[in-house]
Amino acid sequence: MLNVRERRSEKVDYIDSQLVFSQLDATDSTDVISQLADALYQHGNVNADFKQAVLDREKVYPTGLPSGEICVAVPHTDVKYVKKPAIVFASLKKAVDFANMADKSQKVSVRFVAMLAMKEPHSQVTLLQNLMQLFQNQDYLAKLIKIDDSEKLYEELKD
């Protein structure tokens, strides 16, 4: 099993300070996905169809991960919508319900989101697996959701 430092380093290539949001204010999972997809689009990472593709995929294959007391979501979609790979990270001001990836009839109260925009299918799967392992670390998640400044959150994530 990889240690936290090794898993963190995998995402450094895809992280940008303009795509990290601390205490994002969102009303529901659709709002979270929309805000993060809009940020990727405005940053030039994805095409105009990316947001709807993520929303559509989330209905069929939800990404809420019941990782413990602090839950996460990892919304993503097909690589064909991506121009330049990136990950958008956001801690949420208040918990937002996402459907559980294991059972979409159940809700997961999410406080941290990592939206993936990968260009290669294999890299998306590998990165997703590594992020899932990382998000099992409740102490690390607790630290992330307490950070109230986007630049500080960026610094923590890229370390």
From TrEMBL:
Keywords: Sugar transport, Transport
One of the Pfam families matching this protein, by short name: PTS_EIIA_2
Ranges in coiled-coil conformation: none
Gene3D superfamilies, A to Z: Mannitol-specific EII, Chain A (3.40.930.10)
Family annotation (CDD domains): PTS_IIA_fru
Domain PTS EIIA type-2: 13-159
Protein name according to UniProt: PTS sugar transporter subunit IIA
